[in-house]
Amino acid sequence: MSKILSRTAKPKIRFHINDGYRFVNEVVRENKLNTVCEEARCPNIYECWNRGTATIMILGDVCTRACGFCSVKTGKPKWDDPLEPIRTAIAIKKMQLRHVVITSVDRDDLKDDYGSSIWGETINQIREHVPGCTVEVLTPDFKGYRPALERVFNARPDIFSHNVECVERISRKVRSQANWERSIDILRQSAEFGLYTKTGIMVGLGENFDEVVNTMKEIRKFGVSIFTIGQYLQPTKENLPVQRYVSNDEFETYKRIGLYLGFDIVESGPLVRSSYHADEQARLALD
């Protein structure tokens, strides 16, 4: 399959703040939480926070990896907060969320479990304090360490997500400390464990149309149910440059192909990110 790749303009981001945004911001500040919305400079922060949703980032705001696409701080983490799981649950209760996405930095420094015990406890605390809220997790790879993965699997999140981030050919350039095959294997293990499984990629990093389609085909084989595709936007001048801006027509084509391949949900568009419309996806998928 081949396709002429059209050039298009950088997508426009809407800046609008309402009471929903102010409320989420207040709860986040009061409970001393980190959000990937802020740390990764997500273009949808205004839309999502206006709607009363946010993606909470646990285990601190310093990552042990330095992926080429990501603007989260890199260094030696100093996080030490065993009460973070319950504070997270209390904040979710205050926000009256029906669905929450939890993510984290990579914690390769925590050699015993790569932070997975905090992951499991956070899910458990949300279940206890906000029983009506569905839980989606967007995890790091935990170095592929099976006991760490099992801690998260056994907490039974409603949706388990781990991003492959890009097509295989450019994976080493985009995330040099990760491993494509490891990520694929994590998705396979999640689906085999019986968890509703999700992943996503960015486009505009140097991939071609066929590679995106083949990536969807490969991932669908392992039982992944939700697939997201979004335009890569360079967050800072230190990050990888954008190779091209993908047209709306091409995003629509990816969505049609993904649904044809058997994914339950395909979210594909210029400003799509891992947790974009995650609450709507959860209602469609889980109901």
Structure description:
The protein is α/β, with parallel strands linked by helices and 287 residues long. The chain has a single domain, classed as TIM Barrel, CATH 3.20.20. The protein is built from eleven helices and ten strands. It has an eight-stranded mixed sheet with strand order 1-2-5-6-7-8-9-10, sandwiched between helices. The N terminus is likely disordered.
Work out the helicity level.
Answer: 25-40%
Provide the number of structural domains.
Answer: 1
**Mind telling me which CATH architecture this is?**
Alpha-Beta Barrel
**The CATH homologous superfamily:** Aldolase class I
Radius of gyration, in Å, reads 18 Å
User: Care to count the β-strands?
Assistant: 10
Query: Secondary-structure element order, as H and E?
Result: HEHHEEEHEHEHEHHEHEHEH
In this structure, how is the largest beta sheet organized?
A: 8 strands, mixed
Q: Provide a count of the helices.
A: 11
Mean model confidence by pLDDT:
87
Summarize the structure.
By secondary structure, the protein is of the alpha/beta class.
Blueprint of the fold:
Elements (H helix, E strand, L loop, with lengths): L18 H12 L3 E2 H4 L5 H6 L4 E4 L3 E2 L9 E2 L9 H12 L3 E6 L11 H14 L4 E5 L7 H9 L4 E3 L9 H4 L5 H14 L2 E8 L5 H12 L5 E6 L16 H14 L3 E5 L8 H9 L1
Parallel strand pairs: 2-5, 3-4, 5-6, 6-7, 7-8, 8-9, 9-10
Antiparallel strand pairs: 1-2
Helix pairs in contact: 4-5, 5-6, 9-10
